[in-house]
Write a structure and sequence with these properties.
Alpha-Beta Plaits; 5-stranded antiparallel beta sheet; 102 residues; 36% strand; two-stranded antiparallel ribbon; single chain; alpha+beta
């Protein structure tokens, strides 16, 4: 499973996301015994209809179905925290190759 940590507040205010990346990295490591971070360029169409591209950090962890089920509500809470703290329209959560917008 992967959580995509944005590098902006709102839609286009560039910020240092290192504290949020550390929070997600630590949290997923506690849940699943380890996690990895990778930089990427993400893009989506905002509510205003424009393409928004930004640097993101993908924090991912391998886990069993049982672990995923055990921590599913906690993972959603992590995404909700990112969404709230970084004033995002949505946060991407990938589980078993399927993408969800939280």
């Amino acid at each position: 499973m992967s959580i995509y940590v944005p590098s902006t507040n709102n839609v286009n205010e560039q910020v240092d996301n290192s504290a949020m990346v550390d929070y997600v990295h630590t949290t997923l490591s506690r849940f699943f015994g380890g996690a990895t971070c990778a930089p990427a360029i993400g893009g989506w169409v905002s509510e205003s209809g424009e393409l928004v591209k930004e640097r993101v950090t993908i924090v991912y962890a391998f886990c069993t179905d049982e672990q995923l089920e055990r921590y599913d509500e906690d993972i959603i809470s992590v995404c909700e925290k990112i969404k709230k703290d970084m004033s995002q329209e949505a946060v991407s959560l990938e589980v078993n190759g399927e993408l969800y917008f939280i």
